[in-house]
Amino acid sequence: MKVLTSIKERLCSKKVLIVLDNVNDPLILKSLVGNQDWFGRGSRIIVTTRDKRLLASHGVINIYEARGFSDEEAFDFLRHYSLKHELSINDFMELSSEVLDYAQGLPLALEVLGSFLFSMTREEWRNQLNKLKCTPNLKIQEVLAISYDGLDDKEKNIFLDIACFFEWEDKDYVIEILDGCGFFSHSGIRALLDKSLITIYSNKLMMHDLIKEMGREIVRRQSLEEPGERSRLWFHEDIYDALKRNTASEKIEGIFLNLSHLEETLDFTAQAFSRMSKLRLLKVYNSEDTSGNFKDTSNKEKCRVNFSKDFKLCYDCLRFLYLHGYSLKSLPNDFNPKNLVELSMPYSHIQQLWKGIKVLEKLKFIDLNNSKYLIETPDFSGVTNLRRLVLEGCVSLRKVDSSLGNLKNFSFLNLKNCKMLKSLPSSTCDLKSLETLILSGCSKFKEFPENFGSLEMLMELYADEIGLTVLPSFFYFLRNLKVLSFSGCKGPPSTFWVLPSRILNPIGPILQPLSGLCSLVQLKLSDCNLTDESNLSSLGSLSSLQWLDLRRNGFVTLPSTISLLSNLEVS
Fold this sequence. Notes:
Elements (H helix, E strand, L loop, with lengths): L1 H10 L5 E7 L2 H7 L11 E6 L2 H6 L13 H12 L6 H15 L3 H11 L4 H11 L5 H12 L3 H14 L4 H10 L4 H10 L4 E3 L2 E3 L2 H12 L11 E2 L2 H9 L9 E5 L7 E3 L1 H4 L7 E5 L12 H4 L3 E3 L12 E4 L18 E3 L20 E3 L20 E3 L21 E3 L21 E3 L21 E3 L20 E3 L36 E3 L22 E3 L19 E2 L1
Parallel strand pairs: 1-2, 5-6, 6-8, 7-9, 8-10, 10-11, 11-12, 12-13, 13-14, 14-15, 15-16, 16-17, 17-18, 18-19, 19-20
Antiparallel strand pairs: 3-4
């Protein structure tokens, strides 16, 4: 206390410049620069730290985040090193380009690489750059690891999971998965942000390549020679090695296998996974699925993993299970991962997911897209916290189990291109949290449940090219609906599409009034045989409408009431 008083008394009337570099303890700030009144007017206190939380906790208002070099700045920085050595212009340009690509503006990396690469021969620095692709530079890694070392155990786990598995994933989605692992991800991700270990862009988790490399190197050094002794596996050759030789140990917590990198079939057997008692995350995926070309499914259905008939996992720690092309007809009878958060099995051969009731209270996401042999959904009675169900492309699906209506937190249902589905169970109307329903491409779907209008939270309905050509009258009550897409639902020309101003006494087959949809922002009615005889003037009652698609119809002129829609853009 005497020291603090002495600093305040000696400097309170003096204009000073104080620089505190690389501060990692709030006690240092409290002891040396306690308050503004410790120093004279016009004083400047500069503090550098790796932890933004430390500054915020001390009440620092003006925070400047140091940015990496631009390409131009980095190029000028490297030119300094080239002046000391005799390099041809072509060699300098080639080497600089490689270094810039590797360092991505990080001054530390530019300094370390520039200090020794430019003194090498052409063959030597090319060899060194190739080495860096698989073996990170230790000097760079040691400095970057200082921020990692300052994390607690749960924050370290979050960082390593992102570095190995979840870069470029949606932040909220990753939080759901990692919260299921008990990592307190909201505060953990905040800590990583404050230490500049990650960034967030468009809600996607991002990481500098050298920081990601540092994280993966930490995992690799857990066992340099034996991949099966590491906590996380993402490189296909390491995974192939561990499973082929049955050397995968209880230390493994996560495996992400990209099938597009495999050159031969890999067997998934019970024996290969028997020792993985701590396995939390398992993803067998095909990166080609992200191409967005859903018409060509031939390559996506091919799976270079053979699931043995006795295949099963240690379920106690399992939180995330993603198995592309799962080749068995159902899950094992003892499938009971009580802590599972997501179950995804795209392009699987599943006919029935499970029999009877499975109590999976933590399961929030199920995705069985393009599982073309699936006939009906399972009983959802024990999956009480399910939020999203994706069954897109399940072309044999005929029935959605009525237990779906019991799910109080259910918000998203995708049944796109379920071509054998004719209706939904009446219990669907009990889904008071349902926000998005996708039925587009369900060509045999001809009947909505009678009380469908009671879905008061429904905001998006996509029903393009379904078997129904008339929207039921109870659609009038979907007061929170913001998006309605009903294109390609054709009736006979001229007389078929009529938009009366009243709900009662409809004349012939009609599209019922839309005037009740006071929140509607987007409406798509393209390719619906609308003509001049259709009562299009009722569209003028949609006061919130901003986007309207009426393409490929038979009318010649638009009604004058369209002018009432001041925010409208007609396409």
